[in-house]
Amino acid sequence: MSVSVLSPSRLLGGVSGILQAASLLILLLLLIKAAQLYLHRQWLLKALQQFPCPPSHWLFGHIQEFQEDQELQQTRKWVETFPSACPRWLWGGKVRVQLYDPDYMKVILGRSDPKSHGSYRFLAPWIGYGLLLLNGQTWFQHRRMLTPAFHYDILKPYVGLMADSVRVMLDKWEKLLGQEDSPLEVFQHISLMTLDTIMKCAFSHQGSIQVDRNSQSYIQAIRDLNDLLFSRVRNAFYQNDTIYSLTSAGRWTHRACQLAHQYTDQVVQLRKAQLQKEGELEKIKRKRHLDFLDILLLAKMENGSILSDKDLRAEVDTFMFEGHDTTASGISWIFYALATHPKHQERCREEIHGLLGDGASITWNHLDQMPYTTMCIRRHCHPMQMIGIMVVLSIYGLHYNPKVWPNPEVFDPFRFAPGSAQHSHAFLPFSGGSRNCIGKQFAMNELKVATALTLLRFELLPDPTRTPIPMARLVLKSKNGIHLRLRRLPNPCEDKDQL
């Protein structure tokens, strides 16, 4: 009696053979992949042999040296030990060369290479492909389109709007101070103030948003996204979008993006509704200079192919974030630096008082007449800036490089005194080259206005129980906030005039 070709034993034997063949194929593919990774790593080691670095694990790289929120401390150690640059191994064959030498900075920033897709793509779900992430001709068109929004004639009246927002914040601080020298976490208040400023200046928002709960939710979403993005870059398992979307961090990122987009969409929709009013569009077109949102909306309305809704949102999301979070961080650190260096704080106050008196409004012309205050501000402008994925321009490392800045830990505003000799690329708070920060003048103006008006009203003192712990994010942040004691000064500037 013959055995059927479809008998269970023969079927099992066939399946087993297929599984064995598949296993061998998978094993072969894994071996090939491992060989490729090994050869790639060996090639990288040879290519980077002129840049020494600490020993690294073949799989985990330097992950042990860069523990959670120890990024800045480790960077400064490497800057002191390794000249000009240092490779940092992430995992497997992934490496980034950290540069902190001004000559290297000058060469890289002088090039026109497109930004690597790399880690920048993690920003895309949040801010889209606006001016920060775009490349090539599209970037050039957007940059050229938006440059008029930062013309001096547009920035001049913004000084009065900035002053209004600062005074609202200072009034809030006075009400919160239950007693003299009361401690206060200032970063959250400053973030609301800078968001208020950007809303007034770039988006023509009427009134103050510093007591608006929606604004506070937006700022919290931005804080969450800063943390989540930084964590994702460091995690090898979070590099794949699909895998990341299934994690709790991925879902959290999605919710935070939604909150941020709801806020910016509301800003755009409100302005669009205003433009629908009869005569309003023609009135805006007759302006001598258009603000940021004017330019975006008119470019969209006059020629839909120039800016799609997606492009419009990307530029608004980009500028909303960059226009408030970076300046909020800068102002907060400046206040802390002045609180811990009372002699410099008092000298700034004397300069500002001599310029503004007790009741004069602050104007555009005043901003260039406070050299010492400007020197103190420049000392503590430390945004984090990343260029590309294989090469990282460590702005923080550059600014703490003892070869470039002797005794970088010392607070010395005279490093920035007029006429002081320094390398053209030794100080890059706003990056450099063709892709430097388009809003750098706006930011510096806001830093000066906030510092001047605050020093006229309060003496800043540190809170010895809560020293800030710097941590690397998209911009320099403090892990435990920035806590100061505020002492109300006699004979303060009470002027409420507006430009």
From TrEMBL:
It is found in: Endoplasmic reticulum membrane. The chain crosses the membrane at residues 12-32, 120-140. It holds the Pfam family p450. GO terms for molecular function: alkane 1-monooxygenase activity; arachidonate monooxygenase activity; heme binding; iron ion binding; oxidoreductase activity, acting on paired donors, with incorporation or reduction of molecular oxygen, reduced flavin or flavoprotein as one donor, and incorporation of one atom of oxygen. PROSITE patterns: CYTOCHROME_P450. It comes from the Eukaryota. Its main location: endoplasmic reticulum. Its cofactor is heme. Keywords: Endoplasmic reticulum, Heme, Iron, Membrane, Metal-binding, Monooxygenase, Oxidoreductase, Transmembrane, Transmembrane helix. Heme binds at C437. One of its GO terms (cellular component) is endoplasmic reticulum membrane. One of its GO terms (biological process) is icosanoid biosynthetic process. The keyword Ligase does not apply. Belongs to the cytochrome P450 family. This is Cytochrome P450 family 4 subfamily A member 11. The lineage of its organism: Eukaryota, Metazoa, Chordata, Craniata, Vertebrata. The gene is LOC100588910.
